[in-house]
Amino acid sequence: MTDLSLETAPKREQPVPGEPENWRRFFSFSTDHKVIGIQYMVVAFVFFLIGGFLAMVMRGELITPEADLIDRTVYNALFTMHGTIMLFMWTFPVLNGLANYLVPLQIGARDMAFPRLNAVAFWLVPVFGVILMASFLVPGGPAQAGWWSYPPVSLQNPTGNLINGQFLWILAVALSGISSIMGGVNIVTTIIRMRAPGMTFFKMPVFCWAVAAAQTIQLFGLPALTAGAVMLLFDLTVGTSFFDPAKGGDPVLFQHFFWFYSHPAVYVIILPVFGIFSEVFPVYARKPLFGYHFVAVSSFVITGLSAIVWVHHMFASGTPGWMRMLFMATSMAISVPTGVKIFAWVATIWGGKIRLTTPMLFALGGLVNFLFAGITGIMLAAVPFDIHVNNTYFVVGHFHYVIYGAAVMGIYAAIYHWFPKMTGRMYYEGLGKLHFVLTFAGVALNFVPMHFAGLMGMPRRVASYDPEFAYWNVLASLGGFLLGVSTLPFLLNMISSWIQGEKAPANPWRAIGLEWLVASPPPHENFAEIPTVVSAPYGYGKNEPLIASQASTELASELS
Amino acid sequence: MNIRVLLRLAALAGIMAPISLWIGQLSYSWMPEPASAEALLVDDLFSFLTTLGTFIFLGVVGTLLYSVLFQRAARYDEGDGPPIEGNLTLEIVWTAIPIVLVIWIAGYSYKIYDEMGILGPMEHMHMGEAIAAPLTTQASTEPEPIEVHARQWVWEFYYPEAGVTSTELHLPNNTRAKLALTSEDVLHGFFVPAFRVKQDIIPGRKIDFEFTPIREGVYRLRDSQYSGTYFAAMQANVVVESPEAYQQWLHDVAARSPQPGLNPSYDEYQVKVENRENRPGWKTVTPAPAPLVNFPGSPELPVPRL
C-alpha cells in the first residue's frame, strides 16, 4: 500500500526537471523542498521584523516607569502578539524552513516524503499569519491575555462580540498546530524512509538527528495544546465551562494542557539549533564532531525528558509539594544531555584550526549565550528560588537568552553558513561580522538587565512599574533598540548578496556533507544519481571519501 | 604529562574558585534586603547556585576563549585539525559530572524547601482542600488567618479577629503570618519580593499561605499572575510592625467608620473614561470600584532597600 503510493507519487504532476528557475517559483504552490524551505524562511523573517517592531514599542513604553506612551490595553495586546508572532510565526517556521531545505540534501534524497503536504503546511503559515494580524482590526483589538492565554482572563471578552481578538488568536494557533503536525509527519517520515543507500542512522549528520528529535516532540505534544485550544474556544464562544471556575471549570487544567506542549516546544526550537552548532563547529574548527554518538543520541534523551518537565512553569500555581519536587528533579535532569552536548562542542573546537567566519562567530556566541541561559535555567528549576522569581523579569531574561541569544543566533549561523548553497552567491563577510557584534552586544544589553530587574521583584507583563526598577529597564530598552538596529546590516547583506554577490562554488567552506557535493544552488532534483554513503559524517583530517566511487571528485573539490 | 595537565587544571580551578565565591557573595545584594525567614534560606540557595554557575561558566567560556585566541588557523593553512572523534573515558566523566551536580543541587534545594516547610508548613499553601483536615484539628488554638481578597484590580484585606478591613496589609513582626487567599474573578498572584514568597490565587478556591516576616518596614505586594488590563497597577503596601504596634493599630482602626480604600486602577480608569488623556485604546473590563474599608493606608511608595 505505502510502496504503491510512493511509486506512483512522482508520476503525478510534479514540476518537470529543467523548468525555468525564475523568481516566480517562490510565489507559487511549488512542491520543491528547496523552494518551500526558502519560502518558510523569508515569510518567517518578515514576521520576525513585525514581532521585533512590537517589542521595540514595548521597550519604548518601559523606558519610563509610568504607563505613558501607549494605553494599557495596547501594551497588553502588544506583548501577547509579540510572543505569539515570535514563536508561531518566526522560530517554528524558520526552523521548519531550514529543515525543509537541508534534510533531503543531507540524507541524499530528491525531495521530502510528501511534497504536496509540505506545500500545504507552508501555505497555512501566511494564512494564519494574516488571521493573527487581522485581529488588530477587529473591535476590541487583538488578544490581550498573553501568549499563554490563561483562563479566566482569556475568556473575559469585554466587547461581547463573537468574533474578537481572542477568537482569532485561538483560530490562528489551532491552524499553526495543524501546519506543524503536517510538517512533523513529513520530516520524520523523510528522515526514516528517504535516506540514501549506505546512510545508516549513525552515518547521518547530527542536524538530521536533532530535527527528527524535535519533530517527534511536535507529534506527541501538539495534540494536547490543540485539544486545550479547542476547549478554550468552546468556553469562549459556545458557553461550555471546561476552564471557567465561575461555572465549575478548572483553570489549572488549562495550564497543564498548555505547558504539556509549550515547554517541549522550547526543545522543538533549541534542538535544531543544537544540530546547527554540531554542523558549524566541525567545519570551521576543521575537526570531526567530538563524541558524535553521544551528541546524536542525547537529542532523543532530551525529547524523552522534555515530556515530563512541564510543571516547572507552574511551581507558583496550584501544585502540591510532591509535584514540585518531582518536576524539579526531572527539569534538572535535562542538564545532563545538554551538558554532554556543550562539552562535546568545546572539545570539537579545542585544538582545531579555527576560522572566525560569520557563521562560526554566531555559533560561538550562541553557545556562550546558551550556556548562560542553561545556568539560569537550573536556578529556575530549583523550586525555592523559582518561587521568588517565577513570573518576574528573571524568567523573561532567561528565556530571551535561550530564544534570542542561543536559538536566533544559531539560526543566523545557519543562514550565513548555507547562504552560498541556497542562493549560489557569497555574502559579505564584513557586514556579517558587524551584524554579529551588534547582535551579541544587543542581546547582552537587552536581556542581562532583565535578570536583575526580576531578582529585585519586577513582575513580567507590566505596562508600568515602581521607579526602583527604572535603571535596569532603561538599559534593557537601549539594548532592545540596538537589537532592532542589528537587523539592518543583515538585511542589507542578504538582499545585496543575493542580487549581486560573488558567485559561490559548490563547496566554499571545504565542508564535508552530501549537500556540499552538489552545485550551488542545487539542481532541481538535487542529485543526478543518488549517492551511496560509505563513511560517517565529519571526516575532517581523515581524507576518506564520503560516498562510493567519488574519491576523485572529492579530491578535486578539495584541491580547487 | 598527565601530572602536568592535572596541575594546570588545579591552578586554573584555583583562580576560578575565588572569583566564583566572590560573585556568589555579591549575589546577595542583587535581591531586596530579606525581610522574612524564608528569604534568608532562598538567598543562601541563590548564592550557592550563583557560585556553582559562575564556576561552570568561567570554565567553559575560558576554554572556548583560549581556543579562539590561540588555536586559529594560519592565514593560508588549508589543512585540517587532528581527526579526534572522541574519548570514551572523557565522555563518561563529563556525563557523570552533571549527574552528580544535579543530584547535589536538587538535594540542597529539597532541603531548603523542606526547611521552609518546617518554618511554616508550605504544604498548607498549595491546595486548600487537600490539607483541610490538619488545619481544622488545630483551628481551636490558632488565630484565624487574615483574608486576602483579590479582584480586578485591587487588594482588600480582612482581619477577622478585629473585624477590620484595609487596602494596606499589616503584619506583626516575628510572628507566623497566616493568610487565606481568594480571588473573585481571575487568576492573581500574591508576591512580596522582600519576603521571596509567591502563590497564585485561583478563583473558586481558598488557599492557605504562610510565612514569617522578620524585619519591620514597608514593603510592596505585587500581583504576579497576569490578570488583565490594569494588572501592573495592582499593588499594595505591606507594613510589618511590632506585635504591640500591630494590636494597637487593629484596635484603633476598628473604631473608624468605613471609607473608600486605595484603588489606583479605578482612578486611572475614571481618567480614561472621561477621556482626559487622548490615547487610543481598546475596551477593557471595568475595574472594581474602591472597597469600603476601615483603613485605606498610605499611597506613598516605600523606599526600596537593597
Description:
The complex is a heterodimer of chains A (560) and B (306). Chain A has 560 residues and is mostly helical. Chain A has one domain: Cytochrome C Oxidase, Chain A. Chain A is 64% helix and 0% strand. In chain A, α2 runs parallel beside α4 (115-134) and α6 (206-237) packs antiparallel against α7 (251-262). The longest helix of chain A is centred in the N-terminal third of the chain and has 36 residues, at 72-107. Chain A is globular, with a radius of gyration of 23 Å. The radius of gyration of chain B is 27 Å and the shape is elongated. With 306 residues, chain B is α+β, with helices and mostly antiparallel strands. In chain B, a hairpin with a 4-residue loop joins β2 and β3. Chain B has a 5-stranded mixed beta sheet with strand order 3-2-1-5-8. Chain B has helices spanning 2-26, 37-70, 88-119, 132-138, 243-254, 264-273; strands spanning 146-151, 154-159, 164-166, 169-172, 177-183, 188-192, 197-201, 207-211, 217-223, 235-241, 259-260, 292-293. The chains are: A mainly alpha (560), B alpha+beta (306). The interface between A and B is large, with 102 and 98 residues.
Features:
heterodimer, A: 560 residues, mainly alpha, Cytochrome C Oxidase, Chain A, 64% helix, globular, disordered N terminus, B: 306 residues, alpha+beta, 2 domains, five-stranded mixed sheet, 6 helices, 12 strands, elongated
Quick overview of this protein structure:
The complex is a heterodimer of chains A (560) and B (306). Chain A is mainly alpha-helical. Chain A has helices at residues 2-8, 33-62, 72-107, 115-134, 165-193, 206-237, 251-262, 264-285, 292-306, 321-333, 335-349, 358-381, 383-389, 393-423, 429-456, 470-500, 551-559.
